[in-house]
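The freezer alarm interrupted the setup, so I double-checked each line after restarting. Inputs confirmed:
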Amino acid sequence: MPEAPTPRLVYDALLITSHNDFYKPAVAPRVIGLGLGAALIAELVLSGHLDVWTREGSKLVCSDRGAPPPSDSLGLWLIELVRAEPANLAVPEWLEYLALVDIYAKTAEHMAVAGLMVRTQRRTRWRQRTQVAYEASDALTAQAPLARMRRYLTALDTRMSLVDTFLLALTEAVGLSRSLYLQTPARAREYAEAHVRALPAPLQTVRGHLAAAVATTALTGNL
Amino acid sequence: MSTPPAPPSMIRSALARDKLGTFSLLHFSLTAATPLTVIAGGVVVMFAVAGQIGIPLGYIVIAACLWLFSVGYTTMARHITNAGAMYAFVSRGLGRIPGVAAAWVAATSYCALQASLYGLLGLTAQSVLERIGLDVPWWGAALVAWLLIGLLGTRAVDINAKVLAVLLSIEIAVILLFSVSNFLHPADGVSFAALSPSALGGEAAGAVLALAVIGFIGFEAPTVYGEEARDRRRTVARATLATIGILAVVYVASSWSIITAVGDGNIVSAAVGDPDLMFTLAGDQLGSAWGTIGEVLLLTSVTAAALSFHNTTARYLFALGREQVLPARLGRTSARACAPVAASVAQTAVGGVVIVIWAVFELDPLTHLFYYMGTAAGIGLIALITTCAIAVAVYFARDQRDEPVWNTRIAPLLACLALAGVMWLSVIHFHTLLGVEKGSLLPRLVPILFAALALLGAGWGAYLKQVKPEVYAGIGYGAQATLVQSAEPEETAEVAGGR
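Predicted 3D structure, all chains:
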């Protein structure tokens, strides 16, 4: 099993939420969108490009810490969208929007360029429409992010990085707790909770809104 | 100098295009109501139990009460989260401890109402199967339906909604066909006696009103989708009002049509002698095949009703699990379908246990399961709606929130009075509803059980306030509970220190 993470949080989030195998199912499409939206926002918060005003309605704002623009088009796209808004919007609105505009396809396309995904195209038999699908180029790479999370939860002796802690919180929030904690020691949840509680406030806010959006999806059935 | 208007938000414009309109919300609420079950399974029983012809008037009275209630209810829904659950309104209006009490009563009532439908479902399926020469015990048929509902309940609600929508369209078409046929075959001409105020009175008035309320359950569904509505101010209110209006028209027309077809003086004895009166009339007037079609549709309608109540109960248990008011495990979603899987399985387990108990002890599925348990659940739901009406009035009495006086003061107050009256009549006439002697144990036991349940819920709420203030702070917030619970400790303590 490869140990090296994919280069980005949002890539790991895509593999965790959308890859389907014996050990872990893919989550519902809308939940994938919500999870990837949260991962992209968290990535840009961690890189100092975005900030979340936690005490003012969870507004997502461009950071004034003077970080250079993101070097990739995915991050740049979101930054430009945030900048273009006449008023600051709240995190839930951004999550909903990112799920709506198919952030999965955008991220998967990026990963295809990076060689992590393979893009396949086929025409449907009856309606003659072109369907695009993305598969992980390597099954082991696809399983790597969850395997890494589970290794932390089994060993319980390593301090997790902020990125991995957020990824763990994201995995739980999208409903994959069962795959995450299967056959881990009894203290695994306690260990995870301690790490998640230590996340900075903006990331806590993003995580909370992601969990709330997933729960709302379950209540309304809007998939 | 006036400031120029802010440029439009591209993000909000994109999100607005994805929102639900009035018809989408109406579809959700009508599919939750399943009118054929109410008419074929309930109206004929109402004639028999109440022994009077004022059923159409009862539906008009309850529609008016619920319309008054819906004015304040949908207005308050704009200002709170988790607006799909009535206990959330109670939490925000009367406080978290009454909120937990209401949640316990709500979850138990919906759960009991859903389980009670397996009695009717099993009997209807048994009757349909007998027509094709299959002899199946009622509980065998009920267990098959139970399995189907259990499976659909763990899938995405979207699949369920499509199934329910097809069934609803056929149901309404058949109800209208049967009603028109009844009016075209009057026993003594079209009579207006059923709409006279004197037609609804005596010891049975409470029974009629209580059963009428059960028929409208589902009217509250549009508020579940409040945050996804195109215009939160208008769409939800319009859909709720339209649901009450459409159901009222269908129920009044069909119950009145049955009276017209049988005659004012004969309807009670006909209903007592033939629980399938609606289908017997259809068979006589339109041909025997229509009676069979009606019975098959009743089977699908009761299945749809059981599925709909299964989803409602699962949503309640899921929201309470998310808030950790009930075990947090109930707040788990299934990975693939994002359905409230643990809550759904819990409800399925309760339904299964009920069917097995009734089968093992050879209890009557119609009287003891469908009727006794269903009407008992109805009392719980009337208590829930009445408490919710009081919560709405109190919420707006504290702060009108720039809403019109009619929506925040007059309508909620009138709704409180009207629903309290319905509640009072239902409780004091509950013996009529159950068909037992006045002063018997059972009619007194049911309100006492609900009161005890509410007290236990309140006690649990008080315990959470003392021992788990972060959980207490999230009561009534449903899906958003984790956000409130993970707020700064001083904020949580502040919330817990309040109501």
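Quick read of the result. The first strand of chain A starts at residue 50 and ends at 53.
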